[in-house]
Amino acid sequence: MTTTLPERQATPPAAPAGGPSRPPASRRRAFTRRRALTIAAFLAPAFVVVAVFTYYPMLSGSLGAFRTWTIYNVAEQPWTGLDNFRGVLTDPLFYGTVGNTIVWVIGSIVPQFVIGFALALWMRRKFRFRGIYQALVFFPWAVSGFLIGVLFRWMFNSEFGVINDLLMRSGIVDSPLPWLATPALAMPAVIIANVWYGVTFFAIMILAALQSVPDELYEASALDGAGKLRSFWHVTVPYIRTTLALTVLLRTIWIFNFPDLIFGMTGGGPGGRTHIVTSYMISITQQGEYGRASALGLIVMLVLAIFAVFYLLATREKKEAYR
Amino acid sequence: MITTQSRVGKTVRIVALGIWLIITLFPLYWIVVTAVKPRRDIYAFPVEYWPQTFSLENFVNLFAVSNFGTYLTNSIIVSVVAATLVTLISLLSGYVIARFEFHAKSAVLMAFLVTQMIPGFIALGPLYQLMVDLGLVNDRTGLVLVYIAMCIPFSTIMLRGFFENVPDALEEAAMIDGCSRLGALFRVLVPIMTPGIVAAFIFNFVSCWNELFLSVTLMTSDANKTVPTALNGFITSYNIDWGSMSAAAVLTIIPTMVLFAFASKYIVQGLTSGAVKG
């Protein structure tokens, strides 16, 4: 990942210490000050906007988690200690959404990874129209998660849905299934939509990793008499292991943060059975329970921070590996 | 022996890739087909895989029953303005991060990366409160500002990657010839990097065009709604009109698909070179 590649040394070279051509101290100081000003000026617009509209709300939200704060008392928000957290943790729906989230993340990421890996292996060898193929299978990324939810809501429609039609034509079911209205079927349906959406990302990331494996390694292992399967396990997998780990971690975070599709497809229903923690949090916010939503948000941030630490540790490992 | 085996392998490969292509494109095909069917054929079971009669009834109806033209205008204005400003701002920040070494650099990068892992919707309530205080609720300017903040981190990281592919000798030469740093950036680097900058613009545009939760929160009056906000309204209504819905979906998807087709190569490059998108 770029952020971890060895940084270029693009700074104007420092004058050799004590050298004969060393400029006077005042000029050097002016130069450093100028340089610092340039850096600050170029970064300032980006930083100010992000600070005001991203960091400030997050910060005040974190404080709001410890206040009584609903849409009805915006003027005055008394401190309440841990009441909001107690509210979240005693809410029976919360535990249901935690379970749903685990099913949603694991149920989505495993098939995405397996299918994505297979596609990447198949796409590795050049074929005619590979560029066009790659652009076509990339299309889901142009569509919002919400709209994808809407498309699949229509395809999974119980009365007029094309998926029921296909299942009945192929004799798998006898009568239409009410997919999104049945608690046991709704989660599999949203997971199918999410797998469809996420496979391409894995395929493209893994394909890029595969293409980074030097051909000489394969040639060497072929000379040593390794078959395809052996060179896959002993050359390919070890070489791209870190990239695989990074991609899986990144996707875990991302799928965890992906209520968009659920909002478009089921809105969390039936009876909260497809609510994941983040979509549940948004629905609490939309009911105007800002304090409780913020408490839940803080819990979510903690979980994400744990994943982020793993992610950053893994990138560091990759950086070391490339040294 | 080896040739037949590899021929079998090749066939398996082509068939598998073909199946995945069909699976990928089918939902798109299906929404387009639904949109051009007359109402009675949409609500038919078993379903029609190829429309017997083509009709633009759904599109006409969409504009008749809702202010879809207004929503489209809002979305276009907000997305174009926000994407333009984001691209400009992150040209500067991406440039500095690519070209300079400074103490706070890793902290700055970390500050940006964190926003990619913690989604913006985590603080919808406080953001709404802030926008109420600033008088920017139901205001396109407010949404533009929020979208700029949303897009800056990824855009910065993406453009930084593109800057790193351009040797710094070019702008150094320009600066020796008397160009200011800003002048060198815009007169020398920007023309070389045009494809990458266009890709970043497109990515930012599509992110704004598709955004739902922030706009649902901030744009509550009908005259200010963007397309995703309006679609959310359609879908939460008691009875979804799938004719208008599919027509609206098609009109929403087409622009982003066209833009992505132009930029997908660069966006793939940006994604795989490690810019995090959350």
UniProtKB/TrEMBL annotation, chain A:
Taxonomically, the superkingdom here is: Bacteria
Q: Where are the transmembrane segments?
A: 36-56, 102-123, 135-156, 185-210, 231-256, 295-314
What keywords does the record list, in alphabetical order?
Answer: Cell membrane, Membrane, Transmembrane, Transmembrane helix, Transport
The UniProt regions of compositional bias labelled Low complexity, in chain numbering, are: 10-20
Q: Name one GO biological process term.
A: transmembrane transport
Specify whether Zinc-finger is a keyword of the entry: no
User: What cellular component GO annotations does this protein have?
Assistant: plasma membrane
Localization of this protein: Cell membrane
Q: Which residues are the signal sequence here?
A: none
Q: Where is this region: Disordered?
A: 1-27
All copies of the ABC transmembrane type-1 domain together span 98-311
Task: Give the bilayer topology.
Answer: Multi-pass membrane protein
Which PANTHER family is this protein grouped with?
A: BLR7065 PROTEIN, SPERMIDINE_PUTRESCINE TRANSPORT SYSTEM PERMEASE PROTEIN
Q: Which family does it belong to?
A: Belongs to the binding-protein-dependent transport system permease family.
Protein name according to UniProt: Sugar ABC transporter permease
**Origin organism of this chain?**
Labedella phragmitis
**Lineage of producing organism:** Bacteria, Bacillati, Actinomycetota, Actinomycetes, Micrococcales
Automatic annotation (TrEMBL), chain B:
Which keywords has UniProt assigned to this entry? Cell membrane, Membrane, Transmembrane, Transmembrane helix, Transport
Q: Describe the location of the ABC transmembrane type-1 domain by residue ranges.
A: 72-263
Identify the Pfam families for this entry: BPD_transp_1
Q: Where in the cell is it found?
A: Cell membrane
Gene Ontology CC terms: plasma membrane
Which residue ranges run through the membrane?
12-32, 76-97, 109-131, 143-163, 184-206, 242-263
Q: Which domain of life is it from?
A: Bacteria
Keyword Membrane listed? The answer is: yes
Task: Look up keyword Hydrolase and say if it applies.
Answer: no
One BP term from GO: transmembrane transport
Question: Which Gene3D superfamilies does its entry note?
Answer: MetI-like (1.10.3720.10)
What is the recorded membrane topology of this protein?
Multi-pass membrane protein
**Chief location bin:** membrane
Note the InterPro entries from the entry: BP-dep_ABC_trans_perm, MetI-like, MetI-like_sf
The UniProt similarity line reads:
Belongs to the binding-protein-dependent transport system permease family.
Name the chain's protein: Carbohydrate ABC transporter permease
Q: Taxonomic lineage of this organism?
A: Bacteria, Bacillati, Actinomycetota, Actinomycetes, Micrococcales
